[in-house]
Amino acid sequence: MSLEAEWEQADKDGVTMKAALVDIGYLGTTPCHYRANKIQCHLELHIEQGPLLEKVGKTVGVVMSVQAMKWFCVRITGTEGHTGTMAMADRWDALVTASRFITAVRDTAKKTGLGVATVGVINSDSSSMCIIPGGVNFIIDIRCSTDAMVEQLSSAIFAEFDDITTQESNGTAYTITKSWGLPEAKFHTNCIDAMRNGALAEVPESLIMDMKSRAGHDSAWTSQFCPTSMIFVPSKDGLSHNPNEYSSPEHCALGAQVLLNAILNYDERVKSGEFC
Amino acid sequence: MSLEAEWEQADKDGVTMKAALVDIGYLGTTPCHYRANKIQCHLELHIEQGPLLEKVGKTVGVVMSVQAMKWFCVRITGTEGHTGTMAMADRWDALVTASRFITAVRDTAKKTGLGVATVGVINSDSSSMCIIPGGVNFIIDIRCSTDAMVEQLSSAIFAEFDDITTQESNGTAYTITKSWGLPEAKFHTNCIDAMRNGALAEVPESLIMDMKSRAGHDSAWTSQFCPTSMIFVPSKDGLSHNPNEYSSPEHCALGAQVLLNAILNYDERVKSGEFC
After folding, report:
1. 3-class secondary-structure state, position A170
2. How many Å apart are CA A274 and CA B243, to the nearest integer?
3. pTM over 0.90
4. Residues of A with CB below 8 A from B78's CB?
5. What ranges in chain A are assigned the alpha helix state H?
6. Complex ipTM above 0.85?
């Protein structure tokens, strides 16, 4: 489908992308789309958000790939009841089942060693301390080196959920909806090479490390459409998504210089005909 | 302290009860206080909110006492982190620890048979699926026949929390704050007797049952200041704090009639000098 035809397609409310942009005064003259304005390559600088560079005393990470990830929304239903009058044996407590599930998410990731699995968000239907919760929602974030490992780890976790439901045999039930996913992204050798050259112009090879990104990035998506790679600079204590996240000004400046070097290196090699 | 002196006492913001009532236009002429307007007795009708009357086919419950209850606020702290980059072994995940605690609350109540214990409310500091939760709050509701049993059950639960914290040895920590409590309330024999007479005037003795209230009620508080008792009518399927809570019009009308009979019976016995 052409870009214009795509913009003219109505959504379920009958609104086209073009009409929506006109409506908010944001329809410009330059098409903002990778097909209309082709991206030759995508080079990205980021803090590592993990502990590896710091741990081994390196300053630049050349990123080979981004690990695969999936999010699943879990809904558990039980029966609301009075915390004082409902006997323990008669309860269908959605929060107890959710708690066993959340513990199983962590335990299964540790036991299998396939990757990481986390529950960050939880919401109980009940806002009263004297109501047995009748429903609980939570979201699981699963990340592994490959798509196949994400499948393996999620299957292992859901098998635990089934076991727990059978053990409880307490009338609680659950549903799982896949919310979002990012397949494993392998970066382009040309971009990786330009990034490594950019780094070598600033620091000795002993301070450079090939690595995999364990966080998701814009580059994971652009890599589906154009040659892409990333570089990382160290994160203090590997902390990220935490108010104490920190990378030193020196490392940030080094990252910016390496990125500029890489862009110039890539550009020269396009001009020379080495890269197309 | 006299009632007037109590009203004139300033709170931590320097505001007296009397000034606050004047401020919102609610200072009336009749003192609304059990010491200024003495309550001779307190008789209360309620739906059972539990399954016992229905289960044994009775229609009126004469309530002897209200079980003891306590609420505890639990705060668990860990360390926020990135769900993709932080290895499973390095995590201080407050929600995993909270989940193990919540499961232990249920398991300990079932194992000891001392009473009921429930977590109805939970809140995670994180609202993002890609953040390892750094903090979680939840509230425990514990109810047992006696105050001593509430102490026993809460101690058993907190001992489990300590065991879990040691097993995890993952840097998560917790604090417990007592939020609210209601001591066991034993009702007055005069009121119980008037309630039983009121019931016997409407239904045969075989439909009347002596019982304990497992929910909290106004009567639990008034019983500390004046003779008090309650009657219960059946709750369908024992459901309460649930949208399907239901008591039949016939049972509600029977309860109202029994309550009226009891008030008249009590009143006559005060007039005759039997009750003072």
Report:
1. coil
2. 71
3. no
4. none
5. 3-7, 17-23, 52-56, 94-112, 147-168, 189-200, 218-222, 249-271
6. yes
